[in-house]
Amino acid sequence: MSAQQQLLDILQYKIQHDKLVLPTLPDIALKVRQRSGDSDVSLLDMADVIAQDPALAARMIKVSNSAFMGRSIKVSTLNQAVTRIGLSQIRNIAIAMALEQVFLSKHKQVQQQLDTLWHNSIQVASTAVACLSHYNRHEARSGLNKDVLTLIALVHNIGALPIVAEAEREQELLGDPRFLQHLAQSLSADVSVRILQAWGFGEEFHQTALTWRKIQPQRPGPGYTDFIRLAVIARDGYADKALQKKLLQHYVTLQLVPQEDFMQHPDIQAVYQDVRAIFS
């Protein structure tokens, strides 16, 4: 039996028998989620929680000063940043900013794979949010929010993370990094849902994790998963190119994006660059 087949068998067994070690949310993300659920929480309370993690605090100030928030006057303190972002968005944005802490490994080859997963997630988030921003300009009552989509995009393939991390425990079987990446993609959907359930994320997160690989529009829609699919299309990520093109044409007809080469549209490109800059 080849090393690749051995690794595949090990991963499939652990997934089927719930023996795969799932990642946990960073402590600061858990604190933010818990505190934001309190009915009497204030903006100052949230600032106090976020201040416990200096790196997160710095990122929240960066977010508040970005075009993502649609403001031009700069803020310099965490309290100002939290006030600008607001209670309705602070939970999703804070958790999104903290997620990078999950993508860590002591093994060099595995860390390279986790870096790729994280950067891919940022790419998807940046593209999806840019497309949603365009759509919301003419569909103000879409009910779809940038902060929710950002978080959905960052975790849409989160199940790939423990699969890659599990390979760290089978170092003699690691082999070709491309095979490890293939395994992570092919086995991740159900694992993603298990993680999102454990993290307390809602049904819309679960459905995106399960269905974003399907080359078909969301029903009813449009919904968050459609914008994840647009991000995949932007990277020419679907194997069936004919179906990919048909789906893209459907999205253009619905005016989710203005044209088939939508990443060349100046408004979409501007928001895309801004969201990427938040995570740099």
Automatic annotation (TrEMBL):
Q: Domain HDOD spans what residues?
A: 22-215
Q: Which InterPro entries does the annotation name?
A: HDOD (IPR013976), RNase_Y/CdgJ (IPR052340)
Give a single Pfam family match.
HDOD
- Top-level taxon of origin: Bacteria
Q: Which PROSITE patterns match?
A: HDOD
The UniProt entry, under PANTHER family, shows: PTHR33525, RIBONUCLEASE Y
- What is the name of the protein in this document? HDOD domain-containing protein
The record lists the organism as Rheinheimera maricola
